[in-house]
Structures are given as structure tokens and as C-alpha cells.
Specification:
With about 350 residues, this protein is an alpha/beta fold. It has 14 helices and eleven strands.
């Protein structure tokens, strides 16, 4: 081997060593090597539960990024984590996404795909004697968190029926409470009902003897409304569109699997919910809950704008806010075209 060739090889080896050292020094916390995911232990976040458990997202991302996860109780906490740059991508409901977008003047996040339609209900204790909206006067009603999607739905429902919460001068007490605690409080008679997502609504019906006062599907045209969708930090989306597109691709694939294999999907979901919460869902609860939701990748944009109107009615959102730009479904539609599926709109 000639001296010149030896010199070239030595330089190449040195360069590779330096490159290897640089790669090793890129710790797992750098934005280019990690995607931090937020989601709930709810059936309405089925794609996150199944896709993470079965490795669908990890396989789709491959070497692009490793996944770190955090389980939340409700959307406002997720938005706070996005603001604090602790979460990159999350599954949340429409109202926290709207609030996050508005509070950050459109800079914090983008909705990149839908996740679930329906799967929420207002249930009440039978001995609370609530049969019509007027019976809610003087009652104590729980929601998962102040300002979350179900909280806003309840407050808008009260206003539309001529009622007001105590803080607004009325006599209905709304008590934001973690989903897992609501069941115990209902059984103890400390609250009279709750507006919650699945599986908590069905658990309250089966385990606590509640009845359904409002199936939220009945309040929407065709029973179709967004309960959860995928949001991404705008900073992360701008920096790593390839990672986000890979996630969306897997999200669509998992959604197709959920729709095609409902029995198997329920089994995987129950296993994950038990792992995350310490308690599996009873089969009759699971079947009831699953029948009330529809996994989807369509963000059902028209319902989000209606949610914004409800948030204004409830006093959580100023009149005349501009939501232009809250959606960026360009990557979703690229994925759908690649799979031969119809594209979805992001307008009213």
C-alpha cells in the first residue's frame, strides 16, 4: 500500500472517530434524537395506547428519533407542557388545543391529524334525581380539568339551558377532578354527575350505577365531533417534519387496524390501561365504551370551530379570536395520498 493511500486512510479513520464521538455526545435529550409524547390512559387516545404498546411508532420512526412518553389526565396540562418545551407531540381534545394556540398567538402548536370522534357523555347518579337540565340547579358536577374539552362542553350546556355555575352567580357547582377520582366521589355521593370521556363514562354507568343524561353525540350533526386529535409543537414540526410525517403514517396505519380489528383492539387497549392505571376495565364496560367512539385520522375541523364557539359561550375564549393556521394537515394529506386514501379538509 502506498504512503499516500495510508495517509488518506488514516485521515478517513480519524474523521470517522471524530464523527462517532460527536454522535455519542449527542445525548438523548437533544431535539433531533428524541420525540416526547403526551397522551391519556383513555380509549379516546387509542392510537397512542396501541401504537406505543405494539411498537408501531418506534418502527415507523426507526433511527430518526427515540420516543419518550408522559401520561396526563387532561389537555390543559399537556398544553402547559408544550409551552414549557417538555412535550413535542400529543393527543388532546379541541379546547385545550384552541386555548394553547390562542394564548401563544399561534406560535405554540399545530393540529396535524384527527384521532377520535365521539366518546364522551354526561352521566348522573340515579339518586341525584336529575332527569332534565332544570334538575341540575344546586347540584355538584365533575369534569376532568378546568378548561378541558368536557369541562367546556358542560359549561356551554349549562348556559344553553339557562343555568350558570356558582362562580358566574348561578347555583351549579362544577368541580374539576381527575378521572380516576370521579368514580369514588360519585359512589360516595359527594358529586351528582360528571361529563367525562370514555372509558370513564361507561365505568360510571356500570360500576357506579349512573345513567346517561347527555350522550354528546346527540348534540352534533350526524353524531360526529372531535374528541381527540394529534397536536405538535410548532418548533418541533418546523425542525423535524420527517419525524412528524413518520408518526402520522403510523397513526393512520394504527387507526386502520383499530377499525378492522375491534375485538383485538379492545384487548390491547385494556392491557395498556391496566398497566398505566393499575386497573383493567371490566369487559362490559370496555364493550360499551368502545361502541361509542370512532377512531379516525380526520380532524373533523368543523367541530373544532363549534368547540371554539362553545368556549366563548362558557367564558374561556374571547369573542372574535382568529384560529387561522391552527391546522397543518399537509403531512397528513401526503400520507393519505401515499396510501390511496381521500384527503381531508381543514376548514369549516
Amino acid at each position: 500500500m502506498t504512503p499516500n493511500r495510508l495517509l488518506v486512510l488514516a485521515r478517513v479513520a480519524a474523521a470517522l472517530l471524530l464523527l462517532g464521538g460527536w454522535a455519542c455526545n449527542r445525548g438523548p435529550g437533544t431535539a433531533s434524537s428524541v420525540i416526547r409524547i403526551g397522551y391519556f390512559a383513555n380509549l379516546t387516545h387509542a392510537q397512542a395506547l396501541v401504537g406505543l404498546a405494539d411498537g408501531d411508532f418506534a418502527r415507523a420512526l426507526g433511527p430518526r428519533a427515540t420516543i419518550e412518553t408522559t401520561v396526563f389526565n387532561a389537555g390543559p396540562s399537556v398544553v402547559e407542557a408544550i409551552f414549557a418545551k417538555q412535550i413535542d407531540l400529543a393527543y388532546i381534545g379541541p379546547n385545550p388545543a384552541i386555548n394553547g394556540f390562542v394564548q401563544s398567538h399561534g406560535e405554540a402548536l399545530r393540529i396535524v391529524a384527527g384521532a377520535t370522534s365521539a366518546g364522551a357523555a354526561f352521566v348522573v347518579r340515579p339518586d341525584a334525581h336529575i332527569a332534565v337540565p332544570a334538575d341540575l340547579a344546586g347540584k355538584r358536577i365533575a369534569t376532568p380539568q378546568l378548561g378541558n374539552t368536557q369541562d367546556v362542553a358542560l359549561r356551554a350546556y349549562l348556559v344553553s339551558n339557562g343555568l350558570q355555575t356558582k362562580e358566574k352567580g348561578g347555583d351549579v357547582e362544577v368541580i374539576p377532578t381527575a378521572n380516576a377520582q370521579i368514580i369514588d366521589l360519585v359512589k360516595q355521593g359527594q358529586i351528582d354527575g360528571a361529563w367525562v370521556p370514555e372509558p370513564w363514562a361507561s365505568r360510571l354507568v356500570v360500576e357506579a350505577g349512573c345513567t346517561v343524561l347527555v350522550d354528546e353525540r346527540d348534540l352534533w350533526p350526524g353524531g360526529d365531533f372531535v374528541t381527540a386529535h394529534v397536536v405538535v409543537s410548532k418548533t418541533y414540526l418546523d425542525a423535524h417534519p420527517d419525524v412528524v410525517k413518520a408518526w402520522i403514517d403510523a397513526h393512520v396505519t394504527v387507526t386502520q387496524w383499530l377499525l378492522a380489528h375491534p375485538a383485538e383492539a379492545q384487548s390491547v387497549l385494556n392491557r395498556e390501561i391496566e398497566r398505566l392505571t393499575g386497573k383493567a376495565i371490566a369487559p362490559e364496560v370496555l364493550a360499551r365504551a368502545w361502541s361509542s367512539i370512532r377512531p379516525t385520522w380526520d380532524p373533523i375541523a368543523s367541530s373544532l370551530f363549534a368547540c371554539a364557539s362553545a368556549a366563548q359561550t362558557a367564558g374561556f375564549l374571547a369573542k372574535g379570536v382568529n384560529l387561522a393556521g391552527i391546522y397543518d394537515i399537509s403531512l397528513l394529506n401526503e400520507v393519505l395520498r401515499g396510501k390511496g386514501l381521500p384527503e381531508v379538509p381543514a376548514s369549516q
